[in-house]
Design brief:
Layout: H1 3-9, E1 14-18, H2 22-32, E2 37-41, H3 44-52, E3 60-64, H4 72-80, E4 90-94, H5 100-108, E5 113-116, H6 121-161, H7 165-172
Parallel strand pairs: 1-2, 1-3, 3-4, 4-5
Length: 173
């Protein structure tokens, strides 16, 4: 299913919550409220496998830094090295890596933002809203660039076709 078709079917942005703690995942989900749809994952490797298989992407990945198996920083690094997921918004969330150097490291490996636990629900919502808004604007700009490119190609083809009606119709087809 195309990205546009998938988005058209859903009314609410999809957030994947990746956390080995079911209670922490539930707190994040409840903090974000009914504005979003959610899928939960308990291990980063499941997310990597799913995204690497070409499955439709979420609108945002809320990623716990410290998890057994594939930790959040490893997931983030992997996703940033693969073109299909390079622009996927990622917010790292953690209770144990909250020093300034940790925040800087999280952003340096490619996270869009960083939230320390315990967090205020309003802060998490604001950060998620902001990241999704930025993604939507990026997607709109990309779509507009494609539209303008198509119009430019069509204009060039029509110019090259000159006044021959048959050639113009061939170019339009």
């Amino acid at each position: 299913m195309s990205e546009r078709r998938r988005t058209a079917i859903r009314d609410r942005p999809l957030v994947w919550i990746v956390d080995d703690s079911p209670s922490e995942a539930m707190i994040a989900e409840r903090s974000l409220g009914p504005t979003y749809e959610f899928e939960r994952f308990s291990d980063g490797s499941i997310v990597v496998e799913r995204l690497a298989s070409g499955a439709p992407q979420p609108d945002l990945l809320l990623l716990d830094w410290m998890m057994p198996g594939m930790a959040g920083d490893e997931v983030c690094r992997f996703l940033r090295t693969h073109p299909p997921t390079q622009e996927l918004p990622i917010i790292l969330i953690t209770a144990s890596r909250i020093e300034t150097m940790d925040v800087a490291k999280g952003l340096a490996i490619g996270a869009n933002d960083y939230v320390a636990r315990p967090f205020a629900a309003e802060e998490l919502r604001a950060r998620v809203d902001s990241a999704i808004r930025a993604k939507q604007l990026t997607d709109l700009a990309r779509q507009e660039r494609r539209r303008l490119s198509t119009i430019n190609r069509l204009g060039r083809a029509l110019f090259d076709a000159g006044t021959g009606i048959e050639r113009i119709l061939d170019e339009l087809a």
